[in-house]
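in:
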């Protein structure tokens, strides 16, 4: 927004150049100009083109021709004068609805404007309405009930709809220019606007009841005293306190109460540091003694490294006295990448809704808290909101609460955003925005209730912008006067909101000093008792033995210290054939006409099942999903173009060529287990975060995110680094999320070749010098690992590694580097017998070609991983070179490598990879190979392993096909000769 003056110039230009027929689409995305144009029409209908006159005359209610205005002393006035006054009164009301938020009293400090581009609003001044400014402001007037029905249903409307101009102006200013600023007239749905208008013009003037105010005071006292108590007990400890926005707590609790009364049974919350401990204590009801014990430094996570207090989450069940319902409350753990938790929350909510059959998306509510600088600056906000209206990602609306400190870390708003409000990004979703002064707790509670009602009514996002201040620096040890001296001089003089509210209640006669004293003593006593318990109760220590809320689907999963047996992932042959035939058959009727090429693919798949030979990658993947669905597990695969597959290999959805009806064979497998395949928005960060959150909800589902190309996952590296790789160790929250990252060098340039394997391997936490337990009935190697990384070369091995994700009593993230050229390579096919009962995933595949007749005569063993194996295989001409595939890179298969090394005692060892030396698996496998060779028999203990691959390079691959081919030939030659 560039300010009202420039807007007016632009809109005037627009009036002369545009008509509804050619500009409605443009105006729809520039609603501010439309509002200006409408106001111009209301003041003088003939000043706009005829097409626009017709359009505005058709608008409901506010623009209705039934709205009337007349002065009782204007009987002799001309018709034109009455018409002019009528238009002006409608324009005046409209101006307050559209522009009132710009002049609302939002800053508790009284120094700043929440709207950075604020300028005077001429439409809000009565002197700019020629007919109205001539009137006596106390003269009675009659207004249409449609025009003011919101005001008429307020607590104190003028009797018999008799108003004066002064009464109307007072009511408009009270409603739209008080401590709440409403932004909703940008919404292009008139029904929604009118619904909001009626509630705003009613609710703003209906005060809370005396009992509601008493409850609010008690909640505000808990919020204030929590911060005060910690500040006194731990003055030099960072806590990212809520001081300056204590009204957030009663606001959130009122939102939960209202939402619960409207059908919500479960709340999933994501939030940054600020106020997190207060929310944990007073909203989530994490035991105060446990929080205090964490401050005392007496807790320990015996299963992991833990995290700082203000990153932690919790899950609980609470009974709400005001609705007499038990609800689930979850606060999702969050790293310092503040807004990264947003898509995680949405994914978790979506999974809850799917698993409980909440098809109307009314029982589970996502609530996201934000800082003002983060909300305006972090791109994941847009990525997450962009998912909200997509069928397989939408959660029925999110309530966003911005704790608007009016400052970033040390950055002023003018330097941290280019928009007027920090919340302007929400307008692209037509989300209403309620700005509210944090020092008016009544107003905070009102907008929180209204937001809850809106979400349940319209299943859309809604934003609450609580304009507050940050009493201390970025944290309690920071000095804000370095960079914002004037702001913090004002803050130092600021009276706490609890003190202001006490005075307000006393003035209104709702409470007396004795009542306030009792509340204060009651709250302080609770804190004192819990603090005393924190010093002595060792049962409060975080042991990590209870990972999840008791009774949840996760409480049967084993910890990294409890052995889980390895299970076979093979399937009886008759089941494979039955399911294979089912997922390879398209409807045989005249009403479904697939593309001829797709019909051919499905016919080939059917033949694979019949013959039991030549199963390609797409068929192996489909069988993995079909068998899991048949066993009752949910399967969800999401990402860019996953329905067809980037390389046209999956074809999970078949489209009728005449009607575009969709047929999904895997949906026919089970009536209880759900199969979801969903093309996502062109987002990596947001969608991967969503799928991670989805995977957290239940262990009984295979959740997959596929990158269009493996390197595209770079855009989601924050989710990989902060959640997938370390959440179990930091927060005791495990996930079985699977990432499919296409990888392989086919001369397609840097980004379409390399999935950055080395990044994922570097995140693996396995010690490269320590051999795990060899006995498979005792080993905890995978259970203790933070994640798995594989590079499969056969459809059968891919089949088994996917099934292995669910066929054990723990969950670990899995990264699979999937092929491109191998998708259809005949040599990379599998036989159906490799999927059958008794088979399982192979961590290492020894040379199975039959070319090796005497292992002792082998002069060279080439270890490799992925596609390069087939390049080596096609070029090998001697029996003296063995080709060994390392299918699982992490956890590293130490003992299998030792067995193979001992099998070929007279050979030299080579690691061959397509990637440059500083990419790929080399830096990960080399120290582990050294450990393996040190632990073989005496004869080969001193052997080393040699690298063959591309030279060290800044770019992962060349962009020239000829150069690629030359490099590839050189790699193969060096590895084999």
């Amino acid at each position: 927004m560039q300010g009202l003056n420039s807007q007016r110039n632009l809109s005037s230009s627009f009036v002369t150049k545009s008509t509804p027929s050619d500009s409605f689409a443009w105006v729809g995305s520039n609603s501010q100009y439309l509002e200006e144009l409408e106001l111009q029409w209301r003041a003088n209908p003939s000043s706009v083109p005829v097409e626009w006159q017709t359009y505005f005359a058709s608008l409901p209610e506010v623009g209705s021709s039934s709205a009337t205005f007349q002065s009782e002393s204007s009987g002799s006035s001309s018709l034109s004068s009455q018409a002019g006054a009528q238009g002006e009164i409608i324009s005046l009301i409209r101006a307050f609805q559209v522009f009132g938020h710009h002049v609302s009293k939002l800053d508790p400090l009284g120094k700043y404007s929440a709207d950075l581009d604020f300028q005077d609003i001429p439409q809000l001044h009565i002197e700019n309405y020629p007919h109205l400014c001539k009137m006596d402001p106390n003269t009675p007037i009659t207004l249409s009930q449609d025009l003011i029905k919101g005001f008429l249903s307020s607590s104190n409307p003028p009797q018999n709809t008799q108003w004066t101009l002064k009464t109307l102006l007072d009511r408009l200013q009270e409603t739209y220019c008080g401590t709440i600023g409403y932004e909703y007239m940008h919404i292009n749905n008139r029904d929604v606007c009118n619904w909001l208008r009626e509630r705003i013009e009613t609710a703003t003037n209906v005060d809370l009841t005396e009992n509601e105010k008493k409850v609010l005071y008690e909640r505000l006292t808990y919020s204030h005293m929590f911060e005060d108590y910690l500040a006194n007990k731990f003055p030099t400890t960072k806590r990212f306190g809520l001081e300056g926005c204590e009204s957030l707590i009663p606001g959130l609790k009122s939102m939960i109460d209202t939402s619960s009364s409207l059908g919500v049974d479960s709340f999933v919350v994501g939030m940054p540091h600020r106020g997190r401990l207060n929310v944990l204590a007073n909203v989530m009801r994490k035991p105060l003694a446990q929080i205090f014990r964490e401050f005392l430094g007496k807790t320990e996570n015996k299963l992991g490294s833990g995290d700082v207090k203000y990153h932690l989450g919790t899950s609980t069940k609470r009974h709400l006295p005001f609705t007499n319902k038990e609800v689930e409350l979850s606060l999702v753990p969050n790293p310092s990448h503040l807004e990264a938790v947003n898509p995680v929350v949405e994914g978790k909510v979506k999974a809850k809704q799917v698993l409980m059959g909440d098809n109307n998306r009314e029982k589970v509510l996502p609530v996201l808290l934000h800082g003002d600088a983060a909300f305006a600056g972090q791109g994941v906000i847009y990525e997450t909101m962009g998912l909200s209206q997509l069928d397989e990602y939408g959660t029925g609306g999110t309530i966003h609460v911005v704790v608007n400190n009016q400052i970033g870390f040390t950055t002023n708003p003018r330097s941290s955003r280019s928009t007027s409000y920090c919340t302007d990004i929400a307008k692209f979703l037509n989300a209403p925005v309620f700005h509210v002064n944090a020092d008016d707790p009544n107003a905070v509670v009102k907008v929180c209730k209204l937001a809850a009602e809106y979400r349940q009514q319209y299943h859309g996002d809604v934003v609450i912008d609580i304009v507050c201040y940050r009493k201390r620096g970025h944290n309690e040890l920071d000095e804000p006067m370095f960079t914002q001296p004037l702001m913090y001089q004002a803050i130092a003089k600021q009276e706490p909101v609890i003190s202001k509210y006490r005075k307000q209640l006393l003035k209104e006669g709702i409470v007396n000093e004795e009542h306030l004293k009792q509340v204060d003593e009651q709250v302080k006593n609770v804190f004192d008792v819990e603090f005393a318990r924190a010093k002595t109760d060792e049962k409060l220590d975080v042991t990590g033995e209870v990972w999840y809320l008791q009774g949840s689907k996760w409480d049967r999963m084993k910890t990294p210290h409890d052995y889980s047996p390895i299970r076979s992932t093979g399937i009886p042959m008759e089941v494979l054939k039955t399911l294979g035939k089912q997922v390879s058959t398209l409807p045989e009727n005249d009403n479904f006409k697939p593309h001829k090429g797709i019909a051919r693919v499905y016919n080939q798949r059917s033949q694979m099942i019949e013959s039991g030979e030549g199963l390609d990658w797409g068929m192996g993947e489909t069988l993995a999903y079909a068998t899991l669905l048949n066993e009752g597990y949910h399967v969800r695969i999401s990402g860019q173009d996953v329905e067809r597959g980037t390389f046209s290999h999956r074809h999970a959805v078949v489209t009728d060529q005449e009607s575009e009806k969709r047929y999904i064979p895997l949906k026919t497998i089970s009536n209880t287990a759900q199969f979801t395949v969903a093309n996502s928005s062109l987002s990596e960060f947001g969608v991967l975060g969503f799928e991670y959150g989805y995977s957290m909800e239940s262990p009984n589902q295979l959740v997959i995110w596929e990158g269009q190309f493996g390197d595209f996952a770079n855009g989601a590296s924050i989710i990989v680094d902060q959640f997938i790789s370390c959440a179990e160790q930091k927060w005791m929250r495990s996930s079985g999320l699977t990432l499919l990252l296409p990888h392989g060098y086919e001369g397609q340039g840097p980004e379409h070749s390399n999935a950055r394997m080395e990044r994922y391997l570097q995140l693996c936490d396995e010690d490269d010098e320590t051999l795990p337990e060899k006995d498979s009935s005792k080993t905890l190697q995978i259970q203790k690992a933070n994640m798995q990384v594989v590079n499969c070369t056969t459809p059968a091995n891919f089949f088994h590694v996917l099934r292995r994700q669910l066929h054990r009593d723990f969950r670990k993230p899995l990264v699979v580097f999937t092929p491109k050229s191998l998708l259809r390579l005949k040599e990379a096919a599998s036989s159906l017998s490799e999927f059958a009962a008794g088979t399982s995933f192979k961590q290492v595949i020894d040379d199975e070609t039959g070319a090796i007749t005497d292992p002792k005569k082998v002069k060279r063993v080439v270890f490799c991983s992925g596609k390069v194996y087939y390049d080596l295989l096609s070029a090998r001409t001697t029996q003296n070179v063995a080709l060994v595939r390392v299918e699982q890179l992490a956890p590293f298969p130490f003992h299998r490598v030792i067995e193979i090394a001992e099998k070929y005692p007279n050979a030299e060892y080579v690691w061959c990879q397509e990637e440059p030396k500083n990419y790929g698996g080399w830096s990960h496998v080399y120290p582990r190979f050294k450990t393996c060779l040190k632990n073989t028999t005496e004869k080969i203990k001193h052997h080393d392993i040699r690298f063959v691959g591309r030279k060290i390079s800044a770019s992962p691959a060349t962009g020239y096909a000829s150069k690629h081919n030359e490099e590839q030939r050189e790699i193969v030659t060096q590895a084999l000769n």
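note: Residues 1-31, 60-79, 543-547 have pLDDT under 50 and may be disordered.
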